[in-house]
Amino acid sequence: MASHTYGKTLLKIDNVSLEYDGRPILKNVSAEIKDVIRPGCTTGQVVGFLGPSGIGKTQLFRIVAGLNPPTSGRVTINGVDRPVQAGQVGVVAQDYPLFEHRTVLSNLLLAAGQKENDSKVAHDKVMQYLTEFELSDKARLYPVQLSGGQRQRCAIIQQILCSDHFLLMDEPFSGLDLLMLERTCALIQKVANMDELNTIIVVTHDITAAASVADHLWLMGRDHDLNGNCLPGSHIVETYDLIERDLCWEPNIITQPRFMEFVREVKDRFRGL
Ligand SMILES: Nc1ncnc2c1ncn2[C@@H]1O[C@H](COP(=O)(O)OP(=O)(O)OP(=O)(O)O)[C@@H](O)[C@H]1O
Ligand SMILES: [Mg+2]
Question: 133, 163, 193: which is the final residue of a domain?
Answer without folding.
Answer: 163
